[in-house]
Design goal:
alpha/beta; Rossmann fold; binds FE2/S2 (inorganic) cluster; single chain; 7-stranded mixed sheet; 258 residues; Dihydroorotate dehydrogenase B (pyrk subunit), domain 3; Elongation Factor Tu (Ef-tu), domain 3; binds flavin-adenine dinucleotide; 7-stranded antiparallel sheet; 4 helices
């Protein structure tokens, strides 16, 4: 983990309200793994005060670049969207844990919704590169909220929209339920997105008796395990876990879903 000054190398809109930013990464710093995140101090000015956490959506060791996909929400993300190529931001990364890789004979099913796209896309691309055939399911309200992603080599991308304007009509979990599960004898589920979607993925994993990991997105203050501001309730003697330190990726059976 390192705090470093990073240059913005590229940024573009990929869907309504969503942008992808590519930043420089120190050559000497370890590569972030899918699921890990960074925190950004967007400006030297006092506001916005807190660093903002974003999952990594890609990494290129040859070019020493990393990318993130963010939704325009409030002051920090609105400011990020105005930053020009070659301007600098302060980054702390890699933070948190990462997704567990599947076994060789498992079929990875990946589910992304909203701001959960970044980490799931990174995992999908890494699995694809390493000979797995991930099925990436991307859900959104309507076509304009769904990014046009470059296809995977071995895996596949499936779009779902609530209004049926793109791909399957219904949620990403509805889509998974519609699959022929006899064709998926040893599936492993990975998901990141709104809490309701994660809970539905967890319930599906229980129903199908398959392993399932969720990446949680909790409001954060310090981002490095010092303040307990991001604690969530978990099952077990420890009762609470910090999303920034023990997470953000959890076995979905460990979470106390409310
Ligand atoms: C581990 C982790 C990974 C994340 N990865 C991404 C990512 O890849 N892409 C992305 O767009 N966002 C991601 N987020 C959320 C991101 O940090 C917030 O959207 C961002 O901080 C908003 O800052 P802001 O100043 O623009 O808006 P703020 O004014 O800070 O927030 C605007 C609204 O966004 C919501 N919000 C803010 N922070 C969070 C949060 N952590 N989780 C859920 N809702 C929140 C709240 O409803 C808030 O009122 C991640 C959060 C965590 C904890
Ligand atoms: S944000 Fe401070 S402990 Fe996680």
């Amino acid at each position: 983990m390192k705090n470093f000054g990073s240059s913005i190398l590229n940024q573009k809109e990929i869907a309504i309200g969503y942008r992808e930013m590519t930043i420089s990464w120190p050559q000497s710093l370890e590569a972030p793994l899918p699921g890990q995140f960074l925190t950004v101090k967007v400006t030297e000015n006092p506001a916005p005060l807190l660093r903002r956490p974003f999952a990594l959506s890609g990494f290129d060791r040859e070019k020493n670049t990393a990318s993130l996909i963010y939704q325009l929400r409030g002051p920090a993300t609105r400011l990020m969207a105005t930053l020009e190529i070659n301007s600098s931001i302060e980054v702390l990364s890699p933070l948190g844990n990462n997704f567990t890789l599947p076994e060789k004979d498992e079929t990875p099913l990946l589910v992304a919704g909203g701001i959960g796209l970044g980490p799931v896309l990174y995992l999908a691309r890494e699995l694809d590169k390493n000979g797995f055939s991930p099925r990436l399911v991307v859900g959104g309200r309507t076509e304009s909220f769904l990014p046009d992603l470059s296809n995977l080599k071995n895996g596949s991308i499936h779009y779902c929209s609530d209004d049926g304007s793109a791909g399957f009509r219904g949620t990403a979990v509805d889509y998974l339920k519609s699959l022929d599960w006899k064709e998926l004898p040893s599936a492993r589920l990975y998901s990141c997105g709104p809490q309701g979607m994660l809970n539905a993925c967890h319930n599906l994993a229980l129903e199908k008796n398959i392993p399932s990991e969720v990446s949680m997105e909790q409001m954060m203050a310090c981002g490095v395990g010092a303040c307990m501001g991001c604690a969530i309730e978990v099952i077990g003697p420890e009762q609470y876990a910090r999303v920034c330190k023990e997470g953000p990726v959890f076995d979905s059976r460990r979470i106390k879903w409310t």
